[in-house]
Amino acid sequence: MNPFLGVIFHWLGGLASGSFYVPYRFVRRWSWETYWLVGGFFSWIIAPWVLSLILTHDVVKVLSEAGPSCLFWTYFWGVMWGLGGLTFGLTMRYLGMSLGMAVALGYCAAFGTLMPPIFHGDFATKVLATQSGQIILAGVGVCLLGIAVAGMAGMSKEREMSEEQKKSSIAEFNFKKGILVATFSGVMSACFSYGLDAGEAIKHITTKVHGTPDLWQGLPVLVVLLLGGFTTNFIWCVLLNIKNKTGYQYISSTVRDGAPGRNQETIIESAFDAPSEEVVERIPRSKSEPARAPLLLNYIFCALAGVTWYMQFFFYTMGETQMGEYKFSSWTLHMASIIIFSTLWGIALREWKGSSRRTITLVTLGLAVLVASTILVGYGNYLGTLPARP
Question: What pTM was computed for the model?
């Protein structure tokens, strides 16, 4: 075990998660449900199976030996997590990448980190009663403080920018609606942590019975957990394909009349209320020259986004193996890392352009506090690996 190596793995996972949405910006003339589902095939089905088959031993046998109860609960929490993932796109739509991830993942960090030890009855004895546990808990608190600072930066940005400035970087910026969606998304997204916890038996079987190296023990769990997330997203996206008549986009490069043309058009809300004309960009076309979507490039960018998304949990499971008995703290490290790198992407994509010095200072402070939280959690885990004093 090496907690500081674990922190590095979690940073790599945060970099992957904070970056995955970028390739989707290059998808053209596909509706949200189409590019989200195509990317999801790579995130939730292809990448988990391919890497499990390559890096672990007898993954099919491992899953068959895990037992129906373990498989069910791992899958169930994946389905619940899928509900949070569905609304995550709306969070990005209303708050932008940096602020949206900060708020949603703040809730996700708190619920996903603290609930597993509370559920297992270890919170008092393992966390509150030990020095290492107390330091880790302080790191969780510092992480939440950093998230609060990021939220303050977002509110400061909203107050000082005109509507025209907001919409130049985030077309549908809506702070109040975004906060509500981010709350639901964050709480439900924490279910991923519960699914990882429910798959402990799978980890034991793959390492102790089938000889998989400890570093890769979490990969078979991801196969089941992400199948649950895929189920939720598949049902929703297909329903939207039917409702919006966008199913043809998977196989045809010709854009039909009235089809959404903005690469970031998020049709998900249209299941509840019809998108406004300011949101939906209709593609004009003549009978002689129909508009076309770059079919091959769209698949390539979706595949890139999907595999990049999966790599966050590939590195997460690696980092978790280095954290010892306090591996529940991995969730905080993961969330903090995601917020750090997504905020940096938000800066690079000019989402904070036009903000005052005060707002930029808050953004910088939030990043510094989040980095400090990961160091503090890593140090607490390091103390937990030291032999007990006589």
Answer: 0.78
